[in-house]
TrEMBL record:
The keyword Disulfide bond does not apply. The lineage of its organism: Bacteria, Pseudomonadati, Pseudomonadota, Alphaproteobacteria, Hyphomicrobiales. InterPro entries: DHBP_synth_RibB-like_a/b_dom (IPR017945), Sua5-like_dom (IPR006070), Sua5/YwlC_C (IPR038385), Sua5_C (IPR005145), T(6)A37_SUA5 (IPR010923), TC-AMP_synthase_SUA5 (IPR050156). Residues 13-199 form the YrdC-like domain. Its EC number is 2.7.7.87. Belongs to the SUA5 family. Required for the formation of a threonylcarbamoyl group on adenosine at position 37 (t(6)A37) in tRNAs that read codons beginning with adenine. This is Threonylcarbamoyl-AMP synthase.
Length: 326
């Protein structure tokens, strides 16, 4: 950080060294992943991990994901069951997080697990693995935004939100997936979907040969992204709208518009052709743009619950949920 302003570096090979140095000193680095930008700290460094919670204003009972460079690194910290290993071998690197039993004396700081006996682990795609490998152990990296607000999918969004609360921002351009990772927990012969995300549940079910069990929003928090109110803009969010009210902003989907679209102060279409992958990639950035329109409410057209639509609708429902103090 220089004069209270975070350094922003283009994320290339030359950025690995400076980023690793910041992490080793307990600092915070915003890193681009295929899902969203993460606010990273050394997962074994107590002051660094505490810095994540402070910077985000994140509740301490909400655990963090530990990002690893490969399965071998993960095995030093967690124990794999056969189904979880199969999922890791199939989908890593990629937007899948597995909740696994934490090994004793792992060295992972307790703040990462929020006191649980399990650890959420993921191997991200891309160059973030080079930083993790250089550091020599996992990084804790929740989304790089104020807790409960819209996740950042660009370096500019990180800077605008977190400002001087982050020491270094690595600019890798827009995130390709655009929603957080899918989180799965295997418990005996049962497989739980703790959070839908960048890999569709159907793909996971095809690999493990069984249906994923969904948990409702009242379930105990076992992984990140399970808070009822989350991913929220300042504006209220109204879902499955078929008619736009005067002064609302419209988050559209597909080629057919809701009635009264002329009443909207701003309109952005997640995907004109109704492509859920494109919609997921645009979700957070479009919500942020509509939030800046001045509208008090963002109306959202219906989005299918199939495939990545499950993750998109999960984020939208949490964005629309009642908020503390509201």
């Amino acid at each position: 950080m220089e004069n209270g302003v975070p350094r922003v570096l283009r994320f290339d090979g030359e950025a690995v060294g400076p980023a690793t140095d910041v992490l080793r000193c307990g600092g915070l680095v915003a890193v681009p992943t295929e899902t969203v930008y993460g606010l990273a700290a050394d997962a074994t460094h107590g002051e660094g991990v505490a810095g994540i919670y402070a910077a985000k204003g994140r509740p301490s009972f909400n655990p963090l994901i530990a990002h690893v460079s490969d399965i071998a690194m993960a095995e030093r910290y967690v124990t794999f069951d056969p189904l979880s290993r199969k999922l890791a071998e199939t989908f890593w690197p990629g937007p899948l997080t597995l909740v696994l039993p934490l090994r004793e004396d792992s060295g992972i700081h307790p703040l990462v697990t929020a006191g649980l006996s399990t650890l959420a682990v993921r191997m991200p795609r891309g160059d973030v693995g080079k930083i993790i490998r250089a550091l020599g152990h996992p990084i804790a990296a929740p989304s790089a935004n104020t807790s409960g607000k819209i996740s950042a999918t660009t370096a500019e969004a990180v800077r605008d939100d977190l400002g001087d609360r982050v020491d270094l921002i690595l600019d890798g351009g827009p995130c390709s997936v655009g929603v957080e990772s899918t989180i799965v927990k295997i418990d005996g012969d049962k497989a739980y979907l703790l959070r839908p995300g960048g890999i569709a549940a159907e793909e996971i079910e095809a690999v493990i040969g069984r249906k994923l069990i969904r948990l409702d929003q009242r379930a105990a928090i076992e992984a990140p992204g399970m808070l009822a109110s989350h991913y929220a803009p300042d504006a209220a969010v109204r879902l499955n709208t078929t008619e736009v009210k005067l002064g609302e902003a419209l988050l559209a989907f597909g080629p057919v518009r809701a009635k009264g679209v002329e009443n909207a102060v701003a309109v952005l279409n997640l995907s004109e052709r109704g492509d859920l992958r494109e919609a997921a990639a645009n979700l957070f950035s479009y919500m942020k743009q509509l939030d800046a329109s001045g509208a008090r409410t963002i109306a959202v057209e219906p989005i299918p619950e199939t495939g990545l639509g499950e993750a998109i609708n999960d984020r939208l429902r949490r964005a629309a949920a009642p908020r503390e103090g509201a």
